Amino acid sequence: MENAVPRDVLVVHGGAPLQGQIRVRGAKNLISKAMVAAVLGDSPSRLYDVPGIRDVEVVTGLLELHGVRVSKGATDGELIFDPANVEAANVDEINVHAGSSRIPILFCGPLLHRLGHAFIPDLGGCNIGGRPIDFHIQSLREFGAVVDKGEKGMEISAPNGLHGAKLQLPYPSVGATEQILLTAVRAEGVTELRNAAVEPEIIDLICVLQKMGAIIKVHTDRVIEIQGVSSLSGYSHRPIPDRIEAASWAAAALATHGDVFVRGARQADMMTFLNTYTSVGGAFEIDDTPGHGGIRFWHPGGELKAVALETDVHPGFMTDWQQPMVVALTQARGLSIVHETVYESRLGYTAALNQMGATIQTYRECLGGTPCRFGRRNFMHSAVIAGPSKLHAADLVIPDLRAGFSHLIAALAAEGTSRVYGINLIHRGYEDFEAKLAALGANAEMGS
Ligand code: EPZ
Predict the structure, then answer these.
(1) From the CB of 101, is ligand 1 less than 6 Å away?
(2) Of 126, 207, 366, 372, which is the active-site residue?
(3) pLDDT digits over 67-85, tens only?
(4) All residues at 6 or more sequence positions from 421 whose CB lies less than 8 Å from its CB, including other chains
(5) Which of 43, 46, 147, 199 could be stapled to 314 by a disulfide with Cβ–Cβ 3.0 to 4.6 Å?
(6) Is residue 139 in contact with ligand 1, taking CB distance under 6 Å?
(7) Are 170 and 183 in contact (CB under 8 A)?
(8) Which pTM does this prediction carry?
(9) How confident is the model at residue 448 (pLDDT cuts 50, 70, 90)?
């Protein structure tokens, strides 16, 4: 059954420009972490502008298994988390969630503080490389946790409580930085974290924790200092907008010769993307009207230009922007170079684009930039894209969330009718995307 073709399929009649307006809501990669942070509070927390995506359902399920009451607030997208009765969850029930998300690992610190122990199922997530959790485990041990590998996952306990630690990450991992923040805020004493990730979603999580009563200083040079406190209260928070979704629609506008206003998108979080967008030949306009603002992205006509880009941690070009942008680069004249330095295996989706008429060659070498961790380790992590290519329709199977959206953009840009299988995977991170496609004039319908 492993290679069976998924039954959920979107039939896309491509070749028409996307035109119109859609809205992005709170960032998936902040919201799931803020939901976990609610476990640390002594009183209920409230999040606004939460999109209806499957990752939110998964974390809601995990919270409920641990005794947190999750309810809807008065406004659309408002969720309330009541952690009054946090309890240990049944191991088999947590395991039902294994494979669907990497969020369970972030429950470690909050559960250790609340209950003294935690169970973490074997983790899933996107199909983009090994995605190890060694930094997480090492950091938890430095805080005084005892980690044992069990048959179904990891048993973690803190027999002597958790204490502050001096930590240095080998690489500025987003997840490990969040793990350390969520653990250090209530550990005894001071934690100093060097080589921390400083993505906008991390800074927003720090804002959430500060609202709860945490004391966190963000110094220059990726150093974060956390002074542990004995208790935290609930928070009320409106998250930063989803800059990955915003960039995905921006790339779709470019690839389809379209014109899309992304309501809710914010310039400050997307500066690096906007620089690349301009270099490629795309146009954008910022509307910062309070409450109604956003960014209009469009193809201004003429030829797109090839670029060299390298993904990196913030403030670099996000790895999650890479796949949608590559689809637009298939339409640029000349040779574009992409060097993926965050994940070792995030170019596999280019095979599907080649099947549709693109000319993309992948390489093991570090092309067009500084040597990275993957250069000497035999990973296909660079790509050269020769364009412009006329894309034609194909049957595609979605491999992971971001690559999946790129497949969709390619199908929208291609002449003819494509069938995109496994489309439900897109619901993990993109709210209502079928309705958004319709709002942008795309000709697509669910098939069977
Ligand atoms: C987060 O993943 C995001 N996921 C990813 O988005 C995003 O691509 C990534 O950050 C980078 O921005 C969520 O926020 C839920 P990392 P995360 O730890 O935290 C290595 C999406 O589609 N590493 O920063 O798991 C790792 O292998 C997803 O929304 C270790 O070696 O990413 C990778 O090469 C996809 N050991 C690098 O660090 C560890 O213990 C960066 O990973 C942890 C990470």
Answers:
(1) no
(2) 126
(3) 999 999 999 999 999 999 9
(4) 5, 6, 7, 8, 9, 395, 396, 397, 398
(5) 199
(6) no
(7) no
(8) 0.96
(9) confident
What is the C-alpha separation between 56 and 73, in angstroms, rounded?
A: 15
One-letter amino acid at 57 equals E
Q: What is the pLDDT of residue 131?
A: 72
Q: Where are the beta strands (DSSP E) in 69-203?
A: 69-72, 79-82, 117-121, 146-149, 153-157, 166-168, 190-194
Provide the pLDDT confidence category of residue 3 given band limits of 50, 70 and 90. Answer: low
Per-residue model confidence (pLDDT) at position 153: 83
Q: What are phi and psi of 346, to 5 degrees?
A: -120, 30
pLDDT in tens, 119-173: 888 765 555 566 789 999 999 999 999 999 888 788 999 999 999 999 999 999 9
238 burial type by CB count under 10 A (0-12 exposed, 13-18 middle, 19+ buried): middle
Q: Which residue stretches of 222-312 are H helix? A: 243-255, 271-280
Q: What are the structure tokens assigned to 109, written together?
A: 């610190």
Catalytic (active site) residue 207: no
Nearest CA to ligand 1 atom 7: 320
Cα 438 from Cα 435, distance rounded (Å): 5
Phi, psi of 161 (to 5 degrees): 75, 180
Quote the ligand 1 centre to 337 CA distance (angstroms).
23
Q: Give yes or no for residue 319 CB within 6 A of ligand 1.
A: yes
CA–CA distances in Å: residue 121 to residues 99, 103, 169: 9, 10, 23
Nearest residue (CA) to ligand 1, atom 10 = 174
Q: What is the pLDDT of residue 2?
A: 44
How far does residue 342's CA lie from ligand 1's centre (Å)?
Answer: 8
The model's pLDDT over 400-434, given as tens digits with 9 standing for 90+, comes to 899 999 999 999 999 999 999 999 999 999 999 99
For the four alpha carbons of 409, 396, 435 and 27, in that order, the dihedral sign comes to: negative
> How is residue 24 written in tokens?
């992005």
